[in-house]
Amino acid sequence: RGRGDGPARCGGRDVDGDRRIWIADRAASRVRVFNLCGREVGGFGPVAASGPEERGALGGLVDLCLLDGPDEDHVLVTRGGERRHAAQVFRTDGHWIASLRPRGEPEGTFRGLRRGACAGRLTWLCEAGAGRVQVFRDHEFHFLFEVPVRAGGRFEPTAAAPLEDGRWVVATGGRESS
User: Fold this and answer.
1) Each residue of 47-71: pLDDT tens digit?
2) Other CB atoms closer than 10 Å to residue 43's CB: what's the count?
3) Rounded to 5 degrees, what are φ and ψ at 39?
4) Which of 68, 139, 58 is nearest to 102 (CA)?
5) Cα separations in angstroms, 1 against 9, 28, 67, 79, 111
């Protein structure tokens, strides 16, 4: 349930090294943390920002992932829609750290982020609205890719997951999902 017995809408989720469950609650614009018994033990948001496009705003949450490695106390939060601050890094206490720059452009916007995935120094963002995957290293733009599809189709990446050998799997939606 959401706050005050209101509805909750679970977007992304991840589990940290202490086996706490982190959930992006879209309905409450809040990152929520639960223990294994289902008791809420922390979280952050909604952030008091002057508008939905301000850094630190959490409206439109779609996913989150915990960063491992030297930034293990950070969480990547992704938001849907067309936004400049759609991929943001927070400390686990809710303190804003950075917004990832789409295509490395300071004023660029993401279009339709669906999921983010983190492994080591890399972050992969599935941008279904733009038909591409953007890859970041240490929170800085690294490269992007699009996959050609048959005539009339569109590449719609919806999720990415790292494999142990360094390769990644990307799931796509649309007419030719795979």
Assistant:
1) 665 565 688 899 899 999 998 766 5
2) 17
3) -85, 130
4) 139
5) 9, 10, 26, 21, 29
* Signed CA dihedral, 24, 25, 28, 32: sign only: negative
Whole-prediction pTM: 0.88
Give the DSSP letter string of 20-48: PEEEEETTTTEEEEE-TTS-EEEEE----
Angle formed at CA 12 by CA 174 and CA 74, multiple of 5 degrees: 130
pLDDT recorded at residue 52: 58
What are 99's two structure tokens?
Answer: 């917004």
CB 158 within 8 A of CB 171: yes
The two three-digit tokens of residue 105, written as one number? 């452009």
Return the structure tokens found at 135.
């890859």
**How far is Cα 122 from Cα 76, in angstroms, rounded to an integer?**
12
